[in-house]
Amino acid sequence: MEDLTKLAVEAAREAGAAYADARYVRTREEQTSTRSGKVESLAATESRGIGVRVLADGAWGFAATSDLSRSAIVEAARLAVRIGRASATTKKADVALADCDPAVDSVTAEVKEDPFEVPLEERISLLLDCDRLMVQAANPAVREGHLRFVREEQHFASSEGASIYQEFTETGAGIECTAVGEGETQTRSYPGSHGGQMATRGWEMVEELDLPAHAEEVAREATELLEAPHFPSGEADLIMDGNQLALQVHESCGHPIELDRVLGTEASYAGTSFLTPDKLTSGFRYGSEHVNMTADATLSGGLGSFAYDDEGVPGQRTDIVKEGIFCGYLTSRETALKIGQRASNGTMRADGWDALPLIRMTNINLEPGSWTLDEMIRDMGEGYLLRSNSSWSIDDKRLNFQFGAEIAYRIEGGAITGVVRNPTYTGITPQFWGSCDAVANREHWLVWGVPNCGKGEPGQAAHVGHGVSAARFRKVRVGVLENGAEPDHE
Amino acid sequence: MPAQDELIEVGRRAVELSPAEATEAVITSGANNLTRFANNTIHQNVAHADADLRVRAAFGNRVGVATTNDLSEEGVRRCVESAAEIARHQEPDEDFAGLPGPEACAEVVAECGRTARFSPEERAQAVAEIIRVAERDGLNAFGAFATGPQTFAVVNSNGVAVAQGFATADVNVTMSGATSSGRATCTDADVARVDAGQIGERAARKAVESADPIAIEPGDYTVVLEEDAVGDLVGFLGYMGFGGKAFVEGRSFMYGKLGERVCGENITIYDDGLDPGFFPIPFDFEGQPRRKVMLIEDGIARGVVHDRVTAAKAGTASTGHATPPPGAWGPHPMHLKLTPGEASMEEMIASTERGLLITRFHYTNIVHPLRTEITGMTRDGTFLIKNGRLTKGVKNLRFTQSVLTALSNVEMIGRSVRVAEGCLVPALKVGSFHFSGTTEF
Fold first, then answer.
1. Together in a domain, B197 and B221
2. pLDDT for B278-336, tens place per residue?
3. Complex ipTM
4. Quick check: B210 and B180 in contact, CB under 8 A?
5. What is the mean pLDDT of chain B?
6. Comparing B76 with A481, which gets the higher pLDDT?
7. How would you label A37-76 residue by residue, b for 16+ Cβ within 10 Å and e otherwise?
8. How many angstroms separate the first and last alpha carbons of chain B?
9. Which of A248, B81, B319, B419 has the fewest CB atoms within 10 Å, i.e. is most exposed?
10. CATH classification of A2-226 is 3.30.2290.10, yes or no?
11. Interchain CB distance below 8 Å, A268 and B143
12. Structural contact between residues A466 and A254, judged by C-beta atoms closer than 8 angstroms
């Protein structure tokens, strides 16, 4: 397909583009889902096409086609130039791009065991075994199992001479169940909610997760939660781990550091950011001295890991927050120049062949601290451990947030003493991270995959990662429900 | 863009090539042409066209699904063989009721060639009108102008062969000043009815009038909800409980409530895929005719929408609301409508002693589905109403509220409806709405 991407670039240049790049993308996906004792779906999806991005008369144009004939590709390139010229009728200045050495490379992210080669029968058997274990343990009303495999091949070419082939494989897996009671439903999942875990890895990740070993606990906890005490309203100390903490990082750090968003290009849809450019050099305190955050596309196996972004810029590791002080954005070739930086840190990615690259999270991580989880609990005294995200909402500058988790474990006297249902908490981002007084060590650290990060118009879903361990937060406002408390609050 | 008969031909080819005992082909084709603007300039401007084939192949009650956007002879063949191969390895599905036969579907007039043909230059001209309004008022304009045709077709080995096309023009504008913002939107099948300049004026007026907002305490307020805010609430009701799958699994707030009062008697909500003003599609993704379904009538829970699987479990017939296979979400209402009342926006504001006017909500999410409790933020034009008049803009608030409780406290209903957040809804005045927090702007 390299010749087709070069054809698109040449056609765009002939039509008048000052700059052009083209991406051929072929995505193959297989999903296996079980629900309440039967296979709900076995589905295979394949999509391929070419997208052409151009600068014409100093403005951006983009067109994409799934018709891979040479004439259709040339037509798409010419349409992109025409669209760019239409964009230019409102321009205030020509778009400028930071320099980037054009790479010629071929990178395949290897996996130990190709998930697509695992027989369908083995996939189904694994999930139905989990279903049976959930039934035996507590027979929750709805039981689900999910396996998802993705393989993407990309050819990138630019008018600057870049020519890059990348191929990667992603694997996702998870189980969950919902117990139904009188006026109440309770869901528990493993290893996390929203489909489980996903990574740029192979079937070996599924084996490491050992889903059957956790099926009974998931079922028992969902059922136990139906009658568990309600989460209180007021102020409490919290520990959170797993994908609850990953989602917290995603919403309150990952999105507000996207420089395109900071500069207003997402304002009409997802919003802007409280992390305005003046804060980059003013020593703005984002969190406590325990909070160190990085953006790292170079991590092995993360869902936000890659060799080159969709502008052909190498994936990188960037400091975002150092000892609580904000110090870095996610940038692109266009936006880096706007804040006086000379080069992009390589975060432009598109959702398939038919989408324009946007600044997207890579792996946005809360770097590990020095505590073990047990030490954090013992040291805590009273409070709650929250696990598995169930609800998330945040304002359009990413300040006021409200989250819910599937389960809260009550901590009394430095030990877990029971479970509590429907935990919610709220806060203002810098105040919340400012209340962080402990972060668990690298032994607890895992890169969680988020395969549904929404952004842009038309909407795009990015696959991103978040390396987190566990973290503790003091005096958080909790139990945010209608009229301030559960109807039958105890 | 392929015509409707071309999509049906793709479906027929898939059925002919399939080795399965029963085969269904769902073909969707569309173009997405979107001009996006920010800071008073066009910054993203895209066009893409695609068509894909989704094949459901069955041997008895073993079912497999495969999808491709390669509609060449070889691509179609690979897709049907992939679906059949999956089906051969599948476990028997006792819920699979076989593929339906053909049923008469209503005739609807939905296509608008003007919208489908709207060019990048025409979109840029419309955006330039919006930017002129912004620059005149010292504001920054952000938003998108999208146009495009969509076509669906369903063909199966039992003789179903139906297709329908439609087009949409969708505009959203956010105007931003130093301390405030305002938003206006418009969705229409005919781009000729979209007045970009007028949409820009509405958004600009909100931004100007809500400048220098004051902070207010969270708590319970009377609210006047504009259509975009109402559409958000009604859409979330659809996700939380109007679908047959959640209903038969006992996860829906409608479960066990049919025939009982669930909200105020002035509230009627139904799904009508044939409404000519609401992008009608006369069939679902199984090729079954869409039927109007009364969901809540005069405050009484009446029904939910079904596909053939959930209908069989509920002991009823499909209402024509199947989603594309494999349909993990189950049936879903795509044309939710809340019936209008008799009030004007001016009357709703004038009758409010102290309350808030809400333009829209942002990042709404479910807190407790059985209690229909959701949370989200206000955004882009929140005003304090005092003594029947809009006074100041207020800083944004977080709400945490049961939708059905809000719909039990509706005091006035707007006399006109428009498409907002995918629903056809009027504005509402709600006597009490709970705000659980505030933010800094």
1. no
2. 999 999 999 999 999 999 999 999 999 999 999 999 999 999 999 998 878 899 999 99
3. 0.95
4. yes
5. 96
6. B76
7. ebbbbbbbbbbbbbbbbbbbbbbbbbbbbbbeeeeebbeb
8. 45
9. B81
10. yes
11. yes
12. yes
Asked if A96 has any chain B CB less than 8 Å from its own CB, the reply is no
Residue B326, preceding peptide bond in cis (omega within 30° of 0): yes
For chain B, the domain total comes to 2
**Which residue in chain B is spatially nearest to A46 when comparing CA positions?**
B68
CA–CA separation, A200 vs A450, rounded Å? 11
| Residue ranges of A 358-387 with Cβ closer than 8 A to chain B | none
CB distance A66–B67 less than 8 Å? no
Span B85-117, pLDDT tens digits: 999 988 898 889 899 999 999 999 887 889 999
Q: How confident is the model at residue A482 (pLDDT cuts 50, 70, 90)?
A: low
Contacts with A354 from chain B: Cβ below 8 Å: 32, 48, 50
Range A459-463 average pLDDT: 97
CATH number at residue B98: 3.30.2290.10
Q: Do B373 and A60 touch (CB under 8 A)?
A: no
Report whether pLDDT(A489) > 50: no
Mean pLDDT within A190-205: 97
Q: Say whether A480 and B437 touch across the interface (CB within 8 A).
A: yes
Judging contacts by C-beta atoms under 8 Å, the chain B residues touching residue A269 are 144, 172
pLDDT digits (tens, 9 = 90+) for B371-417: 999 999 999 999 999 999 999 999 999 999 999 999 999 999 999 99
Specify the pLDDT at position A156: 98
Q: Do A271 and B362 touch (CB under 8 A)?
A: yes
User: Mean pLDDT score of chain A, rounded to an integer?
Assistant: 96
| B261-288 as b/e: b if 16+ CB within 10 A | ebbbebbbbbbbbbeeebbbbbbbbbbb
CB of A291 within 8 Å of any CB in chain B?
no
CB-CB under 8 Å, A39 with B93: yes
Domain extent at residue B84? 4-202
pLDDT at A483: 52
Q: How far is CA B171 from CA B197, B200, B203, in A?
A: 11, 10, 12
Separation in Å, CA of B107 to nearest CA in chain A: 30
Q: Which residue has the higher pLDDT, B97 or B426?
A: B426
Give SS3 for B264: coil
Asked whether residue B51 is domain-assigned, the answer is: yes
Q: Do B161 and B235 fall within a single domain?
A: no
Where in chain A are the domains? 2-226, 234-484
Helix, coil or strand: residue A263:
coil
Best residue in A402, A429, A460 to probe B by mutation, most B CBs within 10 Å?
Answer: A402
Average pLDDT over residues B408-434: 97
CB pairs under 8 A between A and B: 274
Task: State pLDDT tens for residues A133-150.
Answer: 999 999 999 999 999 999
Where a domain ends, among B202, B224, B257? Answer: B202
Crossing angle of helices B120-136 and B196-209, in 10° steps, is 30
Cβ proximity of B294 and B167 under 8 Å = no
Q: Which residues of A touch B363 (CB under 8 A)?
A: 393-396
Pairing type for strands B397-402 and B428-438 reads antiparallel
- Residue in chain A lying closest to B40 (CA): A90
- The answer on pLDDT for B142 being more than 60 is yes
A231–chain B Cβ distance below 8 A for any pair: no
Tell me how far apart the alpha carbons of residues A10 and A54 are, in angstroms, rounded to a whole number: 11
A135 contact B CB<8A: no
* Mean pLDDT confidence for A360-371: 98
